[in-house]
Amino acid sequence: MKHEQHTVEKQSGEVTAMLQAASPVVDIAKGGDHMRGLGKQRLPQFPLESDDDYKARCKSSWLFDGVGKAIDDMTGKVFEKPVALMEGNGKLSDWAADIDKEGRDLSNFARDVFESAIKMGLSFIMVDAPVRPDLVTVAQAETQGLRPSMAHVALVDVLGWKWVSTNNGPTLMQFRIMESVAKPDRSEFSDEKIPQIRVLDLVEGRVNVRLFQQNGKQEWVEVEGGGPTEQTEIMVTPVYTARTGFFTARPPLARLAEINMAHWRSQSDQSNIMHHARAPIKYFHGYAAEDIAAFKESPGYAFFSTNEAAKVGVVEHGGEAIGAGRQELKDMEFQMQAAGLQLVISKTGNNTATGDAIDEGKQNSLLSMWADNLKDALEIALGWMVDLGGLGSTSTEVFVNKDFTATALSHLTFEQVGKMFALGAIDAGLYIKEGVRRGILSEDVDPEQVKEDVLADAMGQPDVVDE
Questions:
Q1: Residue 27, CB half-sphere, CA atoms under 13 Å: how many?
Q2: In terms of pLDDT, which residue wins out, 186 or 340?
Q3: What share of the chain in percent tops pLDDT 90?
Q4: Tens digit of pLDDT for each residue in 28-45?
Q5: Which residues lie closer than 8 Å to 90 by C-beta, 6 or more apart?
Q6: What are the phi and psi torsion angles at 335 (to 5°)?
Q7: 119 with 72: CB under 8 angstroms?
């Protein structure tokens, strides 16, 4: 049996599977122009539909961006207050003001990492530092910019990794990424870049860097510029939003993207049927083919026939399908909003509206857990920077906002809150708390009876949540 040859540029099966699972989320988040450009990949062509009709339908389709709005809303909640070091830490605070040596401070950098993790299920923070020559002092290195920095590595740029299990847990042995660098022989005013593969290997307790670029034959060959580093571990840490294993995850917005994709296709159908309903089909009775070919329609234009039985009429759409389609779109829009809010709402278990227990549980929402994961990853990365920079016992604790669940339902009507409860997006305790807060329910109501009442009149005619 012939085994497939694995080369440095080959993407691992794990990465390929995660990117494929996240592709609906990523495609929708890129917007309507991108979705229309994907054509039949995301919008199927109907049987017997001509290519011209399909292209017209595709161009007239518009995207209800439920996924993009959810990403923006969740990122906005976490970064309503900036990520920051908890203590003034001198040099580390100076580094945090330009954490990636590309002008982004710690908070803006963290926001980009977090948004990528929401889309893909995980994203990576890599810490790097140029090797300081033996004769260069720490002060000279600082002046020359030879200091540690963070880099965001999105899943789409990762080719693969290797790890082993040790007494201290998983240890990363290799990490391969695709990056873009300036072309060595580019002209003075050119910004041309070329792809480059960076391979980090942990060999005998030291991290070694290898760089690969394509030669004239488009073969990947090792080039100069890598070599040994001072690092004793590969300094890459993941930021998870839906972890499935070490360095693996699933896209947490997959269910939302599935509804959004169905809405995209249903909306295309709705626009198509509205077009035909507004332009009724004419029918001709008792006319010769050449008479019909000469037919023109405009104000003041007469059309006649010598056939006394001839007539011209129209076939109009009854409209029932239009109303059903509109209701289907409204239902899916509410489901998308419910799916997005479900990630923000606290998991309060069996707590009821006796109040304080729900407030104490507000950190249990999925979004607050994701914010915790971001905080942990940033502190790990800052710890590596402290070690590489020789900053001793400098504190690396950071503040990441998690106080956002209290107002998560405030913009909904109580009827819509009930529908959220019926969909399973919130529990009975939070539903009752909202009713008490609005003066609609009493604190001593029976949760089971409330559940029966809400489910009995669950969906009805759902309204789209106002922006």
A1: 22
A2: 186
A3: 40
A4: 999 999 999 999 999 888
A5: 394
A6: -60, -40
A7: no
Q: Phi then psi for 84, rounded to 5 degrees?
A: -155, 155
* pLDDT confidence band for 26 (50 / 70 / 90): very high
- Beta bridge partner(s), residue 164: 171
Structure tokens at 200: 């980090």
Instruction: Write out pLDDT tens, residues 393-436.
Output: 889 999 999 877 555 666 677 777 777 777 666 777 777 888 88
- Is pLDDT at 244 greater than 90 in this prediction? yes
Mean pLDDT on 191-216: 93
Cα distances (Å, whole numbers) of residue 50 to 5, 45, 46, 264, 267: 43, 9, 9, 20, 19
Token output for 16: 């390929």
pLDDT in the model for residue 78: 93
Rounded to 10 degrees, what is the CA torsion of 425, 426, 428, 432? -130
Query: Could you tell me if 183 and 201 are in contact, meaning their C-beta atoms sit under 8 angstroms apart?
Result: no
Looking up tokens 């020359």 gives 144
Cβ proximity of 80 and 401 under 8 Å: yes
Q: What is the pLDDT of residues 149-161, one digit of tens each?
A: 999 999 999 999 9
Residue with tokens 């023109």: 296
Predicted pLDDT of residue 350 = 44
Q: Could you tell me which residues come within 8 angstroms of residue 443 by beta carbon, excluding any fewer than 6 positions away?
A: 353, 354, 355, 432, 436
For strands 158-166 and 206-214, give the pairing. Answer: unpaired
pTM (two decimals): 0.77
Could you write out the three-class secondary structure of the chain?
Answer: CCCCCCCCCCCCHHHHHHHHHHHHHHHHHCCHHHHHHHHHHCCCCCCCCCHHHHHHHHHHCCCCCHHHHHHHHHHHHHCCCCCEECCCCCHHHHHHCCCCCCCCCHHHHHHHHHHHHHHHCEEEEEEECCCCCCCCCHHHHHHCCCCCEEEEECHHHEEEEEEEEECCEEEEEEEEEEEEEECCCCCCCCCCEEEEEEEEEEECCEEEEEEEEECCCCCEEEEEEEEECCCCCCCEEEEECCEEECCEECCCCHHHHHHHHHHHHHHHHHHHHHHHHHCCEEEEECCCHHHHHCCCCCCCCCCCCCCCCCEEEEECCCCHHHHHHHHHHHHHHHHHHHHHHHCCCCCCCCCCCCCHHHHHCHHHCHHHHHHHHHHHHHHHHHHHHHHHHCCCCCCCCEECCCCCCCCCCCCCCHHHHHHHHHCCCCCHHHHHHHHHHCCCCCCCCCHHHHHHHHHHCCCCCCCCCCC
324: exposed, middle or buried (C-beta count within 10 Å: 0-12, 13-18, 19+)? exposed
Pairing of strands 236-240, 122-128: antiparallel
